[in-house]
UniProtKB/TrEMBL annotation:
Stored SUPFAM superfamilies: Winged helix' DNA-binding domain (SSF46785)
Taxonomic lineage: Bacteria, Bacillati, Actinomycetota, Actinomycetes, Streptosporangiales
Gene3D superfamilies in the cross-refs: Winged helix-like DNA-binding domain superfamily/Winged helix DNA-binding domain
Species of provenance: Microtetraspora glauca
PROSITE patterns, sorted: HTH_MARR_2 (PS50995)
Superkingdom classification of source: Bacteria
One protein family per Pfam: MarR
Stated name of the protein: MarR family transcriptional regulator
Start and end residues of each HTH marR-type domain: 12-150
Length: 160
């Protein structure tokens, strides 16, 4: 019979590190979302969808791949793409290579929206994350983020 292991409690320093990370995880998405809502009238998730499409060949991606890229469920993505379609920024079409799939396609108006929105978003990312750090700290943050993502999802394709 296995005896239960005593929890590996956090040291004071580990607790302070954890609390700092939790604060970032909670407040950074809200800060980015607020900037995008205020300046562009879209949510951070909507921007991720538009930006994801803007970076692909022919500005097109299968909905299932786009859901994975934007870290949302297919159901959530479908609702968001529906809203983006109503604004004329995205359209859906059957995948000609396999009709079981649906493609999301960034329209010219959608491209224009990304181009208009990106400078403010990049400035917010710089202001909130990169500018407060030294170049060495930026590299460390990248490496730390990659290590944490490997622990969470070893098969993650965004690790680069």
């Amino acid at each position: 019979m296995d005896t239960p292991r005593e929890p590996r409690w956090l040291t004071e320093e580990e607790m302070q590190t954890w609390l700092a990370l939790v604060s970032v995880l909670i407040r950074l998405p809200a800060a980015l979302d607020g900037q995008l809502q205020r300046d562009a009238g879209i949510s951070h998730f909507e921007y991720q969808v538009l930006a994801g499409l803007s970076m692909t060949p022919e500005r097109t991606m299968r909905m299932s791949e786009l859901a994975s890229f934007s870290d949302g469920s297919l159901s959530r993505l479908s609702h968001v793409v529906g809203r983006l379609e109503k604004r004329g920024w995205v359209r859906r079409t059957p995948d000609p290579a396999d009709g079981r799939y649906t493609l999301a396609v960034l329209t010219e108006d959608g491209w224009d929206k990304v181009v208009a929105t990106a400078p403010g978003h990049v400035e917010a990312v710089r202001g909130f994350v990169l500018d407060p750090l030294t170049k060495a700290q930026t590299r460390q943050l990248r490496d730390i983020g990659r290590r944490i993502m490997r622990a969470i999802d070893p098969d993650d394709t965004c690790l680069g």
